[in-house]
Amino acid sequence: MGQVILVEEDHGMTELLAGQLKKLAGVESIPRKNAIDTIELLKLLPKVNLIVTRAKIGDENTAQELLDFINENGLPTNLIVTGDGFENRDITTVTDERDWEDILFYSLQVLNVPLEGINKATRDYTSFPIEYFLPLRNLPCSVFLKLKKSETDFYFLKRYHSGRPISSDSIGSYIKEGVSELFVLEEDERSFSNFLSDSYISELAKEGKTFSATMDLLHIADTFLKRQILSFGLVKNAIQLGYRIQQKILKVVGEHPLFPDTWNYLEKSNLPYTFQSQIMLAGIISELTQENFLEMGKHQNPLIEACFLHNVALGTRDDMALISSMDELENSGLSFDEQLKVMNHAADGAEMSLMRQDLLFGADQIIREHHGAVNGMGFPVPPSPGIKKASHFFLICDEFVRELFLGKGEDLDKKVTDEFSKKIIKKLIDMWRNK
After folding, report:
1. Mean pLDDT, residues 358-383 taken together
2. Which CATH superfamily is domain 1-121 in?
3. Quick check: 127 and 145 in contact, CB under 8 A?
4. For residue 215, what are the CA distances in angstroms to 73, 209, 221, 275?
């Protein structure tokens, strides 16, 4: 099936790999001690399929010398490098030279050996958006790239090892190359999610970041938080991260004028509505309840908590969160199950919020009633007279932020008839126009 050269100074590792390759691939492995001996052999056997080599043996840059010879002579030989001291994105590298399972796994892939029945190939992986890794400095588990082997087949290549440093520059280079996801083993998903929560909490506690860098970090942390809540519920780590995000956003809107600074930044950004709306709502409600609607002042804290939880049941789905009427829902093109989710998201969000033991009294009712229905289902027009006044106040602020995001900030006044709503809208438009 092929020829393999093993360039390895550890005799035990050579025997182990040779035995497994013979058993699983039916190939004989030829041991060599350095690049010089291997190059001499390649001159005799130019069609060797694979060389598994240490990055360095002694003072010799073994892997680089072999790669140079292969390229200069146009040989069809694949290279797998083990150990530290070699960097080339096009070459499979196993940093831990003792990880014989990884070395064997990638060797069998190169040799086109069917991997069914081999434990490493049958493991399940969980994807995470690559942006989640930008704030990280180290990793608690191995992280993999998903690479295309053929039109219908993929394999997973370990790119980051547990406990090793990781940099934003390294992640950024993958983003530039079009990589959108990285993967962890399915059994590591829960612990890795907890690690992300703790890491973001730590980063959000640091001072000195620019406004733009703070916004980017908040977006990454908030997007992850929504995923974590939908996957595991409002667990302890999610509650702590949510609280830290909430405090950081309130600090940002307290230090930067909502209009024009914060709004101008958000308007020019590509940040999603589910993220932007939290910031705008928190800023608007903080200002209005302190200056113009003092009767809402006693509800300020639960109103602000609702800013961060009212769409929690929809995760990061902007297409769902932007729907605010039955007509929009019916014409949305969403599936029946998705439409049902939108219909009930206010009620579901209220129930989810109650999992927070520290939730302020009244916040769940505001979340439940934020589309005007006492039971949190649907989009009644006009809002039900049974909803509390604070919920009505929140509803109008929420609608204004939505219209602002859609570029129709002045249209909301035409949609309401009651004096309370008109009074809120007038002040909101004044705030916006005076930006």
Report:
1. 95
2. Response regulator (3.40.50.2300)
3. no
4. 51, 9, 10, 10
pLDDT one-digit tens code per residue, 335-350: 999 999 999 999 999 9
Q: Which residues of 227-264 are buried (b: 16+ CB within 10 A; e: fewer)?
A: bbbeeeebbebbbebbebbbebbbebbeeeebbeebbe
pTM of the model: 0.72
Neighbours of 67 (CB within 10 A): 21
Eight-state DSSP code of residue 224: H
- The dihedrals phi and psi of 422, each to the nearest 5 degrees, come to -65, -40
How many Cα atoms are found within 13 Å in the side-chain-facing hemisphere of 215? 22
Structure tokens at 194: 């907890």
Pair of tokens at residue 112 = 């086109």
Taking Cα atoms as reference points, which of 365, 359, 370 lies closest to residue 395? 370
The three-point CA angle 154-70-113 to 5° equals 30
Q: How many CB atoms lie within 10 A of CB 147?
A: 12
Q: Judge whether 284 and 435 are in contact, CB under 8 Å.
A: no
pLDDT single digits (tens) 236-274: 899 999 999 999 999 999 999 999 899 999 999 999 999
- Which residues does 372 contact at the CB level (< 8 Å), separation at least 6? 379, 380, 381, 382, 383, 384, 387, 391, 392, 395
CA pair distance 168, 272, nearest whole angstrom: 22
For residue 175, give Cα distances in angstroms to 25, 101, 168, 179, 223. Answer: 35, 28, 10, 5, 17
Whether the bond into 302 is cis, omega within 30 of 0: no
Pairwise CA distance, residues 430 & 379, whole Å: 27
Kindly list the domain boundaries of the chain, sorted by start residue: 1-121, 260-433
